[in-house]
Amino acid sequence: MKLSDLYWHRVTPLHLLLWPLSLLLNLFFKIRKLCYWLDFFPLVKLPVPVIVVDSITIDDGGKTPLVLWLVEMLKGRGLSPGIVTQGDPDRPGQPEALTKLSEHARVRSKALLLGKRLEHTCPVWAGNNPADVAQALLQAHPDCNIIICTFGLQYPRLERDFEIAVADFNEASFGNGLLLPAGPLRAGLKRLHSVDAVVINSPRKLRFDTSDWAPTYHMKLVGNMVYNLSSPDGRHPVSDLKDRSVQAFATYGNTQWLANQLQQNGLKGKMQSVTDDHRFVEQDFSAIEAEVIIMLEEEAIQCQKFQKDRIWALPVEAWIDGEIQARVLNMLREKLADSDVTNEMACSN
Description:
- Pfam families: LpxK.
- One of its GO terms (molecular function) is ATP binding.
- It is built from eleven helices and 15 strands.
- Strands 3-4-2-5-1-6-7-8-15 form a nine-stranded mixed sheet, with helices on both faces.
- It folds into two domains: about 250 residues, P-loop containing nucleotide triphosphate hydrolases (Rossmann fold, 3-Layer(aba) Sandwich), CATH 3.40.50; about 90 residues, D-Maltodextrin-Binding Protein, domain 2.
- The protein is an alpha/beta fold.
- Helices cover about 30% and strands about 20% of the residues.
């Protein structure tokens, strides 16, 4: 178990010292939200509907595969979505468009993955303020008629029409149940009462009472296909690699999931874990003798300039409860009954 997991799972004297800071942070968020609600601060209302997809914990919870599924679903309904995602908080700057050629040093791996996967599907813009990024995206792409924001539950300045909270809600995700900085939660569990939907990425029975939560839906993440970095357009079943020597790389948070996927597809090999903020360099692979190096796609894209022949990327796909599709579309129809967006949805039925 990594050091941060040990920290999130315990309640020590250090946590007791940090607990008042957690209360102050939570109070700050509530006061800020109240100030926007009372119109002390101006809200940003976009001319198109906004869907926020976010997690209440520091754990991603499968947010990126859910966003990719959502884009495909909306495109299938004749809509033109645009993606607003978070840039690197350590490198604040102006909103910027992302593509597969964007520099990894400037944005996070998950944001870069969205830019790569959706380059020919819909615009993806990154920045540190969702309202500013969304406005910049719409100015550059006025044909977009819906915005999907991959962060925003803690940013009330941007008005939204639909909120989806996503997490795996396992023990590692909630940890000691405390708010930052004493625990892994960025918002209390009561925040799940006020969102429009909760998507749960967990096959196990939850140890939480969900009766007061927003409607819940289940999601399963799968990875059965891979591609070589030297030929990214080709897709192959993971099982095709089972007769070759394999070394897998993953960040701590993804290690167990990747190991399970490889085992289910009959692959055996070594698994090496790195820290969640690790930046891959060519020297990471210099001592590896395996024929095949398998990495999750979001991590493999850091390695596009080296080791292309040996590195295989495994994309993650989301299998999602179909009922949430109807809920999202119905909500859009109710809130935008007289808009052109609803007309486009109707024409695509």
